[in-house]
Amino acid sequence: MRGVTARAFSGRRGSLVAFAVDLDRTLLPPGGTSVRSASGLLATVRKMGLKVVLVSGRAYAQLTSFAEELRVVDALVAENGAVIESPIGGAVKLVGRRTGGQVRRRLASAHWADAEYGEIVVSVPRRRGPSVDRLLKDLAVDLIPNVDRVMVLPKGVTKASGMRFALRALHLSSRGFAAIGDGENDIDLLHEAELSGAVANANPRVRSIADYACRASFVAGVEEFVKGPLADYLAGRPSTRNFAVRGRPRLPSTSAHRMGSRRGTGLRPQRVDPELPARRTRG
């Protein structure tokens, strides 16, 4: 077990204003249908002075039902960053509608019964990744792996970009956040977070880049992160928990997460969607 030095908290006390939490395989185990048990935990996060942002690859309509059940969510980031409601009850922002429509029309011509469509995102089985890459080779899109599926999104749209939108709408765009997740589509979000965690059931790559690798899985892992390193971080105190003090690796851009690049295919330079806010420079 590695400890955190006091230096790791230097200059960061009180810098966090929000907590981004993933839904599937983080708050919600596979096959789960309710997140009611996590409501008290997220209420604790609010008492810490943080806004709670539910961040997911799920369609907006699905995510709203979970937010209503939790009752303590301040903002939603759905469809991996393409649909944002911030604050809850405010206007819903859709990012990349034009590209999303182009993707929908192009993939509809393939007549794949296993394709799933959201407002913007399209999800297909992971085995279809190479075929999708060929079909969409002239469009500004990213293919984001997520367990056994691949999400097709306008280029530059990620959970991190959605979180930036959410914070800006809450007038907190210049402040830091903590985040926890499990999947490859959480990597951009965790990398941008000031403090990041990965539940025990997370993808090995995700655990390798997170600041804190939980011993517990699913919501128990979220509780471990909140009551341990997050509480310590906010208090500005050193921790003797399972906290890795390591330099953050420089992650490739989202386009490098495409299935094409994972299979060694050359990638085309693409224009980032102009609706996306600029990435915040980390100090």
Detailed description of the structure:
- This protein is an alpha/beta fold and about 280 residues long.
- The protein folds into two domains: about 15-95 and about 155-235, HAD superfamily/HAD-like (Rossmann fold), CATH 3.40.50.1000; about 95-155 and about 250-260, no CATH class.
- Helix content is about 30%, strand content about 20%.
- It has helices at about 40-45, 60-70, 95-110, 130-135, 160-170, 185-190, 205-210, 220-235, 260, and strands spanning about 15-20, 50-55, 75-80, 85, 90-95, 115, 120-125, 140-145, 150-155, 175-180, 195-200, 210-215.
- The strands form two sheets. Strands 5-4-3-2-1-10-11-12 form an eight-stranded mixed sheet, sandwiched between helices. It has a four-stranded antiparallel sheet with strand order 6-7-9-8.
- It is globular.
- About 45% of the residues are buried.
